[in-house]
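Protocol step 4 of 6: record predicted structures for both targets in the notebook before any analysis. Target 1:
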Amino acid sequence: MSGLDPARFNATVDGKPVKLFVLTNARGAEACIINYGGRVVSLMVPDRDGRMTDVELGYDNIDDYVNNDGNYGALIGRYGNRIGNARFTLDGVTYELPVNNGPHCLHGGPKGFDKLVWDACLEGNSRLVLTLLSPDGDAGFPGNLNVKVTYTLTDENALDIEYEATTDAPTVVNLTNHSYFNLNGDLSSSIHNHEVMIDANVITPSDETLITDGSMRNILGSPLDFTTAKPLGRDINAPYDQLINGNGYDQNFVLNNRGNINKVAATCYSPVTGIKMEILTSEPGLQIYTGNFLDGQPGKHGVPYPERSAVAFETQHYPNTPNCPSYPPCELRPGEIYRTRTIYRFTVA
């Protein structure tokens, strides 16, 4: 339905086969996912007139995913977001990580889970199970980490993502998905018109290098206040330190849902198509990133993706948690099971 050619994704990367998997549901929605980086390549949902619309930025061939930077639709690990100064201490041992974002480690380093080939098993028409072994010392992180991620395209037109992980040594884990969304029906258009609500009164503020220090900030009444839905473009250029630091929205919001997967954490709505996306999650945080560093590079079908042509909603533990003991812990120990779940649910309004 997305116009993708599955043959353009057939490849061998790092000695492992890559292919495109197509999920469908009873209502005609479709999700295309590749096992290179566990990336969502396209996501087709109906607009207010019933037209199936792709809301996901990405590429239409495997070579572009392998050769270009960026996390379009990718699974992120071992640790989503930043770890300050690319190091952390756990049980008295300091672990050094690769530096790939200023002085920090971002999204698990330059070869995180987004650059690895996952083992894939398609279960029926609507579910894809991806598994990965991240060996002890991978990107500097301790422990052999076994990861399982299940994508389900539900009959509610929701992409339901379930994450699990186990380890044989104490480690830190923070898994997420880095889908870039544009609900306008034109993936090159600005997302300034997207109306967003976030159920959060507080952020974890970051400095000019976009790293957090363990503090919290109340944002009610500020340009970061989304407790009542408003267009992303209304305040995005306001002279506010957090917006200046990120060249737009790039903040972690402390969610009020307290891990309740049944309570909507955020919504995003396009007045052009009537498509509304609800985000539900068991995670305590939600990173909003408004594509501030997209540069017009062409994506699927040659469509350019300019600055602020997409918005990401990354569910997560807070940035730099391994170095901020006041934040909810992200440690995983032998005998424990890391479990988290995020749902992107689409309706029309």
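Target 2:
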Amino acid sequence: MSDVKKSAITRILSAVVGLPVYIFFLYTDKLYAVPTLLVSIIITLVCLLEYYQMAWKSEEEKPHTTFGLTSALALNVLMYLYAFGGMGFVRMFDARAILVLSTVLVAALLIYRLFAKPLKGGIYSLAVTAFGVMYIVLFFSHTILIKALQNGFQYLIVLNAVVMINDAAAYFGGGFLGKHKTNFPASPNKSYEGYLFGLVFSIIAILVCNKIIVYTNAVELFSTAEAIALGVVFSILGHLGDLVESAIKRDSAIKDSGSIIPGHGGMWDVFDALILSTPFFYYYLIYRSAM
């Protein structure tokens, strides 16, 4: 059996085991949807830790891991309180509280670096610490905000299904039929055939999901034209999210962000494509509801 086939089988088995748990945590509304918060916390903290391990260059040039992980936890909790604060046990948070927290965290990190660490390597340490929290944690934790919307679970299913199918189709299409390499600096071995497969299956996936939700919940989330447009956007953003992680891994000279998920690598290897797509989808839904 070829290495490609072995890897494909392992990826499928990991998905069969992990996906039902992931979907259940997104689905349940028990305990004021705390399971969704736990999903965001676990995924963002593990992804952030993997990123910090990749970014560690020396004792001077290294991220402030403890500070970053603590900030990630606080940001997730604040996003949850903003999304579900009206459930009865806390008052509704103003959205500006998220900006306040971000400002306080950055200021605290600057002060900490000034007085607790030598100045050598300070710019690098500050930059990689703050970037990880803002990009990985702030972006992905919009999952919590989507969950709080009307039909939030259905939107999350569409988002996850389309992005993951796009990623899987690109992987298998490129692995078995890829002939023309893109030669992108971040990932030169990706093929145009893989990207095309991802795009086609992304569109098919969102159309199928839309119809299934109509039959099961009597709710049409998107028109056909809107679904096709979103399928294209999700495919593009998914690939860009993958390329962002690939660029960081290439700069760190590693193949995978970790080894926590067999066949996939690290947690960031699995959720990299969702990081860019999630906030876009949330703000699109907010914009659409305001129109």
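Step 5 preliminary note on target 2. The chain has ten helices and no strands. The mean pLDDT is 87.
Proceed to step 6 after PI sign-off.
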